[in-house]
Amino acid sequence: MAGPASLLRLLTCGSVDDGKSTLIGRLLHDCGAVPSDKLEGLTDFSLLADGLEAEREQGITIDVAYLYFASGRRRFILADTPGHEQYTRNMATGASRAEVAIVLVDATKGVLTQTRRHATIARLLGIRSFVLAVNKMDLAGFDRARFEAIARDFVRFGAAIGIERVAAIPVCALDGDNVTARSARMPWYDGRSLLATLEAIEPEEADGTGAFRMPVQQVIRDGGARFYAGRIAAGTVRPGDSIAIAPAGTPARIARIATKDGDLDTAEAGQSVALSFAAEVDCSRGDTLFAGAAPQIADQFEATLIWMAEEPLLPGRQYLLKLGTQSVPATVQEPKYKLGIDTMEQLAARTLGLNEIGDAVIHTARPIVFEPYEASRSLGGFILIDRISAATVAAGLIRFGLRRAENVHEQSLTVTAGRRAALMLQKPRLLWFTGLSGAGKSTIANLVEAKLHARGRHTFLLDGDNVRLGLNKDLGFTAADRVENIRRAGEAAKLMMDAGLIVLTAFISPFRAERQLVREMVGAGDFIEIFVDTPLAEAERRDTKGLYRKARAGKLANFTGVDSPYEAPESPDIRIDTMAMDAEDAADLIVRHLDGDPS
Amino acid sequence: MLFSGGKDSCVMLHLARKAFFPARPPFPLLHVDTGWKFAELYTLRDQLAAEAGMELIVHRNPDAEARGINPFDHGAALHTELWKTEGLKQALDAGRFDVAFGGARRDEEMSRAKERIFSVRSASHGWDPKRQRPELWQLYNGRRAPGESLRVFPLSDWTERDIWAYVAAEKLKVASLYFAAERPTARRDGTLLIVDDERFPLAAVTRRVRVRTVGCWPLTGAVESDAADVDAVLAEMARDGTSERSGRLIDKDQPASMERKKKQGYF
Fold it and tell me: Is this model's pTM higher than 0.90 or not?
């Protein structure tokens, strides 16, 4: 393989109108990267850069396409991403691994709002080297003054957002001027061609330098021996080195660096290795091996988020955060601000929608090991995953940790939840009733509590309406408030379970994700999801509280089933079909379920 | 891990063995067979799997077998759909596999330029280009919603040149078909075939040829060549400007053909 120094990852920013596809097609063609069977009958260079069928029909690029070419001196991987603002996420994706951004500007139009937006996103994702290709110089009469004015404009703007290196080149992509060879039509330009510029750029050294860091990807067992495998993120390691394991801080000594081709005497950043320790210590996937100063560890930090899903951010909802090899449940607070997509100014925001960028505080369920994104892309960049759909919903860049987790300790108690429950001769449970408004949740929960009480059980019923009159009276009925409503109800229920009680709750709790959150909060075995299944038409016909009438009349916004969704449980522990049984039978069924429970 | 014994397969298997060393890769190898592969590939496939100490599952679509589907009588499109696309779906369903590794590369074909490294497939193995997850940095989302499965392409960013450079650097054993030799050949629909067995009467002419990519022998185009070792192959690639898959007849049956096949579940 050619050495890593000879590979450069590029990102192109600009729109179809600026002639971006033409420039890329020209670059590929002039570097001989276009196979002759694909050149047959080709009339338009831009066709070389397109991809999917749908895109060919629409004539625009809607995803990230990776293209491969090489000059005599270097190999290139070019991420071609769309220009329109509805594809910010694709651009961020392309930028995440690129070292150099080629920003394309139409010489007849100059630096546009879109140019500034692209450059800002590229810089945000960590790109420091920019090439400004001022295209369509033929239409600007190959005018030197015009080129220099545009270059000045961009350099001035770039300096304001932290872009240090800009190489400006006047080109005419259609005819190939200054693309791979210097143009005779612009003798006043004495700089390098685009290709020569790309060949000369020094690769980034941001990651990989500094003290040893290796996130553990997997623990490999071979007979009795354990090996800790992963890719070295920074520094070097040798057998005999004293290292430590974050976040616990446990010390360890390296015994072997094992590879299929034999043990190594040393390994460095970028290499994937399996390490063994001199003595048995506790270490698992997600831990980070380090030497020297400990990496940062926190369970709260501020981050820039790029929202990538159709469904907007729900502050308070639990997502899964993946950073390096660490995966941990995390919640996002209401954003501090979002960036105006064109002006990039900070705007007030309560959420983030598709393609929006903003800053927010994130809490993780456990402390994680990280570096600020500006210091390390691999230890500072993360993704958020929706727990139900499993889709990647956001990319995040850690700005700084907010609280050092070692300062926060859970108070350990002498009388434990188990001892309290033992005294009451019962196993604490959470009976979680969910269903539409008017489905019969409270009625059935009341009956169940009465029956349990009659048997000498210690119980407590948390009713949705009652909780909203007290603990949660500051919350409304927006999706975000519904998430918080359930989170608090779950926490309150958990405290009561710790006190030894069998807790019953009656909340609409319309979203699967939050019911899942509570299930995980209290432990799956102690959470009994009871779906009070009443069809919407029937609940609306009963309309015991007159709320459906109000909602249909437009006097009540965000009403579940009317203008706010209800996500029915896919596999509840108990399903009560209220069309088939009355409340009394339903309550008996639930009590029998508790009795029949082997535990 | 999909494994045919071809050059990309050999690289994948070698990388997997390195990644899980000193243990063995914790998954089986799967070959979706059509009965029309080159004899040499079958031998190499079995030999390499045994060397790695890994289980090799060979699946042949029983329906295609019963109907005697072959590339000569039924054409490339039907042959590929039944033996490969359908056969693969059957094999993945039978093994209830959550994840399948494949050796596809983005440089092979236009619609693959936008393929993800972790590619989500629906319960019916369909590929929806609009539902693909963004992939940032080197962070991959391996989670699945119920019913979904993943196709994972670790060689996405490799080019044909990288494959040969790796074969050379690691001294990998690959099929001799990739290197020029005198072989019985026949021209069919403008493509030069290497006649690998006698199932169809083709008047063979001896030519000095090699292949750049191997599929079913009646669908694999050979090129006349003198490149008899890896260095010569690399040098030939630098001179010659045609794409690797130009020898694959299955890509040519209709426009945007690979994208359509992928939506249906082809690898």
Answer: no
